Amino acid sequence: MAKNNSLYTKGSEWRKWDLHIHPKTYGGSYDNFIDNINKSEAEVVGINAYSTIKGYEAIVSKHIDKIQKVLFPVIEFRMKNILLDKNDSRLKSGIRFNFHI
């Protein structure tokens, strides 16, 4: 019988991810921000900003040695102008989403 050398002996595991954290609206210091990320139950964190990854880059470039979580850059785009009907203030097709990439 073949020996099982798999790294994944438990099968699937669910992990908490938080992919919507805006560092500029945090209001505290980056040290406190990173401490709170490290203390959170989320194992993966998305650093979110509108149309840019500059906040993510600033955190990673200056504080990478303190970060104990997996971080991803998350770019948020406002789709309101694209989705609004030109003759009406209602969204086309009843779409009610805040789109994130």
UniProtKB/TrEMBL annotation:
Protein name (Swiss-Prot/TrEMBL): Uncharacterized protein
Organism: marine sediment metagenome
